[in-house]
Amino acid sequence: MHFSKKLIILSCASLAAIASCTPERSPFDVSPAESLDPKRAEAPYPQIAIPADLDMESPRWKGIDLTPAPPVIPVSANEEAKSFVLKPGFKIEPILSEPQIREPAAIQFDGNGRMYVLELRSYMQDIDASGELFATSRISRWEDKDDDGVYETGVVFLDSLVFPRFVVPFGPNTILSMESNEDHVYKYTDTDGDGKSDKKELFATGLGRSGNVEHQTSFLTWTMDNWMYSTYNAHRIRWTPDGVIQEPTGNPYGQWGVAQDNHGQVWFQDGAGGTPQNFNFPIVYGNFRVPGQFQEGFRVPYSLVKLADFEPGMRETKADMSLNNVTGSAGNDVFRGDKLPKELIGQYFYGEPVGRIIRQVKSTKEEGLTYIQNEYIDSESEFIQSTDPLFRPVDIATAPDGTMYIVDMYRGIIQEGNWTQEGSYLRTKIQQYQMDDIIGNGRIWRVTYDGMPRSKEKPRMYDETTAELVKHLEHPNGWWRDMAQQNIILRQDKSVVGELEKMVTSSSNELARIHSLWTLEGLGSLKAETVKNLMKDPSSVIRIQALRASETLYKYGEKSLAENYRAMPLDADPSVAIQALQSAYILKIEDADKLLKSSQQVNQSKGVQLVTTQLLEREEEAKKAAATRYSPKEQALFAQGKTIFDSYCSTCHGVKGLGTPTGAGDLIAPAFSGSPRIMGHPEYAVKTLLHGLTGAIEGKEYEGVMISMSSNDDQYIASVVSYIRNEFGNKGSFVDADYVAQIRKETASRESNYNYDELVAEIPKALFLQDNWKVTASSTSLQGVGSTRDPSYAFGFKGWKTETAQEPGMWFQVELPKERQLAEVEFDSGAEQFPKKYTVSVSIDGKSWTEVGSGTGVKGLNTVRLNAQATGRFLKIQTTEKGEQSWAMKQMKIYAR
Question: Where is the Cytochrome c domain (predicted)?
Answer without folding.
Answer: 636-728
